[in-house]
């Protein structure tokens, strides 16, 4: 196997980035980029800490990431499994990255910046859904923001229903937990209880 060892070797393979790849980058949330954030119900949050990298999904009602100002995004932390891997990382290393997806759109939107975790009561209450505020809000200072061209999403056929997996061929969370824990947690009863559990704990 031939392994690329230096940036110079890499650049020799790929050449220079084209003008559109550089012109699209902004150091603030422009009006056009704000429209994409407002339309997105989902993003991936990447963080880094002493134990390594973490990338986790974040999803909510459309436009759930609020634009505080042209340099600030506000991401509420909704109910989850309490691992708080991303938040543990942020308090030790503020570097964060987001990738927003909009169902039906081939383009993704990428943000790189620095995060801080706020538990300001007034801010939390402003994000309440059905009377339930998040336990924290990630305040992100934007360093750069740009769209990612549509090739990857188009190649994958991500939004094409014909490409949806047959869920019967995939392991369920209950099956995975049962196998990983030697039967101490998970199983069919875990899967059967999911709908009711999710309904009660969505926010």
Word description of this protein:
It is a single chain. This protein is of the alpha+beta class. The protein is built from nine helices and seven strands. The chain has helices at 7-14, 19-23, 31-39, 85-92, 121-126, 151-156, 173-181, 188-192, 194-201, and strands at residues 42-49, 52-59, 66-69, 72-77, 95-101, 108-118, 136-148. The chain has a seven-stranded antiparallel sheet, with helices on one face. The chain is globular. It starts with 6 loop residues before the first helix and ends with a helix.
Question: Main traits of this protein?
Answer:
203 residues, Pnp Oxidase, Chain A, 7-stranded antiparallel beta sheet, alpha+beta
Strand residue content? 25-35%
Distance between the termini: 48 Å
What about the largest sheet?
7 strands, antiparallel
CATH topology of the largest domain: Pnp Oxidase, Chain A
Mean pLDDT value: 96
Structurally, the number of domains stands at: 2
Report the helical percentage.
25-40%
| Order of SSEs | HHHEEEEHEEHEHHHH
Q: Any idea what the radius of gyration is?
A: 20 Å
Q: What is the topology, as strand order, of the major beta sheet? A: 2-1-5-6-7-4-3
State the CATH superfamily name of the largest domain: Electron Transport, Fmn-binding Protein, Chain A
Task: Please tally the helical runs, counting DSSP H or I stretches of 4 or more residues.
Answer: 9
Return the CATH class of the largest domain.
Mainly Beta
CATH architecture of the largest domain: Roll
């Amino acid at each position: 196997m031939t392994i690329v060892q230096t940036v110079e070797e890499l650049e020799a393979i790929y050449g220079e980035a084209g003008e559109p790849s550089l012109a699209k980058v902004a150091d603030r949330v422009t009006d056009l980029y704000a429209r994409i954030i407002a339309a997105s119900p989902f993003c991936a949050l990447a963080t880094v800490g002493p134990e390594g990298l973490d990338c986790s999904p974040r999803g909510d009602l459309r436009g759930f990431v609020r634009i505080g100002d042209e340099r600030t995004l506000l991401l509420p932390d909704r109910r989850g499994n309490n691992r708080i891997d991303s938040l543990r990382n942020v308090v030790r290393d503020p570097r964060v990255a987001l990738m927003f997806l909009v169902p039906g759109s081939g383009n993704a939107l990428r943000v790189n910046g620095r995060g801080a975790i706020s538990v300001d009561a007034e801010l939390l209450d402003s994000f309440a859904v059905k009377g339930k505020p998040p336990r924290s809000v990630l305040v992100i200072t934007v360093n750069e923001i740009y769209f990612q061209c549509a090739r990857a999403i188009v190649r994958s056929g991500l939004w094409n229903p014909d490409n949806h997996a047959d869920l019967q061929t995939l392991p369920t969370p209950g099956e995975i937990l049962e196998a990983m824990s030697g039967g101490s947690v998970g199983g069919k009863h875990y899967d059967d209880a999911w709908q009711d559990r999710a309904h009660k704990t969505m926010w």
